[in-house]
Structures are given as C-alpha cells and as structure tokens.
C-alpha cells in the first residue's frame, strides 16, 4: 500500500466539493465550457509548465515536468462530458441542468485526474519525465478523443510515449481495479436502413409490395450473422433497436425504416459483419423485389490495451490497492470508449476502477460517482506517474 493521499487529506476534501459542483452542472459533448473553466481555474493555481486550452473546442492539456523532463513522456486522460438524461437522484449535488446528467462518472474522472495534477505539481521531484494531463470533451458518442488526436500535430505537440485512461466500473467493489491485457471495450458502429416497397390496401396485398414482411425477414437474417457467420470463439453483437413503418390497420406502407448498432472486438469480425449485412440486404432485395438502402456508420474502434502497458498499470494498481484488489482479464465490455483513439497507433492502456457493488449501472438515472475513488483513483494516477 502506498497512499499519497488519504480520505482525510485537505486536497481530497476540496476535490470532493469540486466533483459535486461539476456533477451539479453537467454539460454535453463539446459544450463543456463551464466544466473546462473550472478545471482551468484549478490548473492555473498549480505549479505547471503549460496549460493548453481549446483542444477539440473545450479540451485541455496541462504539462508538468519532473526530474529529467525529456527522459520519458506519459499521457493521462480524463473525459468531461455528461449525458442527455434526467437525473432521478435528490441529493444536494443532483443536476441543476434539466435533461442533463453525469450518469457515466466523467465528473469523477475529471476530478481524479485534477487531484493527481494538484499532488504531482507540488511533488515534482517525486517523478521522472513529463506528464500530460489530458481533459477531453465529448466522450459520449461524439468522439472527442478522435477530434483531439486528429488536430494539427497532436502527438507532435504532446509527444506521449504511452497514454493511460481510467473509467469507474459499477459492480466492481470500491477499492478494486480491473484491467485487461487486450480487448477492454468494443467497437461501436451504428446503421440505419430503409426497405422500400410499394404501398397499397391491406386487404389486397397482391397489388402492393409489402416492405413489412421483407423487413421481418431482414431482421431475422441479421440475427444469423453472429450466430452463423462469426466464430463462436469471437464476440459480436448485431442489434436492430428501432423499426418504424405503417400508419393504419388497412394500409400497407410504402417503406419501413430501421436502425441499430453493431459491436465487435476485431477488425476481421467487424469486416465480416459489415459484408454479411450487405449480402443479407441484397438477398432480401432479390427475395421480395424491394429496394434496401443501408447506411452503415463506423463509430469508435475497439479499445485494445497494449499488454506491456497493462502490466505497468497492474503494478501501480497493486501498490495502491493491494495484491488481492486487482482483477486481471475480466470479460471485456460490449460498451464502447473513444479512448481507443489514443491507443490505436500509440501504446497505452485503460483501467476500470470499482464504483461499488451496489452502484447503479452507468447511464442509469440513479447513478452517482463514488467519491472514495478520488483517493483511490488519484493515488493510482500518482503511482503510475512515479513508477511507470
Ligand atoms: Zn458513458
Ligand atoms: Zn463514460
């Protein structure tokens, strides 16, 4: 055990207030203006080497040099955005912004990283190299991480050798960590499609071309892709989550629209699913004489930890939480994470920090970040910087 900070630390008391203030004022993707101002306000009081604001609109990268600043470069990333969701909690720090909520704990991620920045800036002699504290916008679906790393010469301006991420994990006990040597979070794609038939009278179907029957077959066809085309040893999901068509009991509609999501962990499986979806659509066109227009939208790539960096995380987590509190290679999640962009072509790893076994799930209207993680999480970041 190596506690740099404890529950009794003054800094932790301040950061608990900070976290709750951010929770009470959630902001959506690329609109984290107040949040970014609050983060910058704290950063500006610290002994840092540089603060770069306006990265991918609201993002911030703060730079801190320790001993031998050129000897190594490490990036630590937190996300700042909230979700379009009505909070159902009634505690004092519940959302004051109607229809917006920190239901994924990004308020906590921001606060844990800021806490670590506070401690490290006062203890520059404790570590070697340069640390980049990355506060990114728009993790929830909008891919703020992609926008950030695609900005002019991001990895040139911030030459990180490895980037590390952390997400709270409901169900995992507080004080525990979960880490993977490979896939952690899935690739997330979406699709929309339209089945175009020919509308007509519900009692005279032979004079129409029913897109509803064709759509039913299409959904069934999609369900065979994971079951029959993807190896049973691989993971994938194809979910049709919306289907809309028709206006009356006696009317065959002209067309049906549907949409859904595809999750996978490898490029090969992802390509296989896309190919089969196109083939199923083409087959339905021939079978029913309809036209199927498929709009497949690739989203976040899978988050796949680099094994060497995962080992570094495991060592740091064990030092902070104890040997028995670090669980290695849990089943990965079918959720997605845009942190993937930071480690797509560069090394790094992403760790789960327990939010408590009783915690409501992520994206649940009763969720709240576990403030005890301000200590556990900040100590982990600090240990990672010192020992990585
Ligand atoms: Zn989320
Ligand atoms: Zn999240």
How would you describe what is shown here?
It is a single chain. This protein is of the alpha/beta class and about 400 residues long. The protein folds into 2 domains: about 260 residues, Zn peptidases (Aminopeptidase, 3-Layer(aba) Sandwich); about 110 residues, Alpha-Beta Plaits, CATH 3.30.70. About 30% of the residues lie in helices and about 25% in strands. The chain contains 9 helices and 16 strands. The strands form 4 sheets. The protein has an 8-stranded mixed sheet with strand order 1-2-4-3-5-16-6-15, sandwiched between helices. Strands 10-12-8-13 form a 4-stranded antiparallel sheet, with helices on one face. It has a two-stranded antiparallel ribbon with strand order 7-14. Strand 1 and strand 2 form a beta hairpin. The longest helix is centred in the last third of the chain and has 22 residues. It binds zinc ion (ZN) (2 copies). The site of one zinc ion (ZN) has 4 residues, from loops.
Quick structural gist:
The chain is of the alpha/beta class.
